[in-house]
């Protein structure tokens, strides 16, 4: 799924990304492993395994 990095926050052992997609805004958490990661306003492609996905209640 294509997206755009709206914000990213380093949290010590992981990164928190806010990604804008056609399906809506997503929060992505990635473990910090030293790799170069996308900057804010950079386009990205998202993919995940079904067992790694968590659905959370949204605002009404």
From TrEMBL:
Q: Does the keyword Transferase apply?
A: no
| InterPro entries registered for this protein in UniProt | Mo/tungstate-bd_C_term_dom, Transp-assoc_OB_typ2
GO CC term (a single one)? ATP-binding cassette (ABC) transporter complex
Q: Which UniProt keywords apply?
A: Plasmid
Superkingdom per UniProt? Bacteria
Domain spans labelled Transport-associated OB type: 2-56
Gene Ontology terms for molecular function: ATP binding; transmembrane transporter activity
KW Membrane (keyword) present: no
Q: What is this protein called?
A: Transport-associated OB type 2 domain-containing protein
């Amino acid at each position: 799924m294509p997206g755009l990095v709206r914000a990213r926050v380093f949290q010590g052992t992981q990164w928190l990304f806010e990604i804008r997609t056609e399906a809506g805004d997503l929060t992505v958490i990635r473990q910090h492993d030293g790799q170069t990661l996308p900057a804010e306003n950079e386009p990205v492609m998202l993919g995940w395994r079904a067992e790694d996905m968590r659905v959370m209640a949204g605002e009404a």
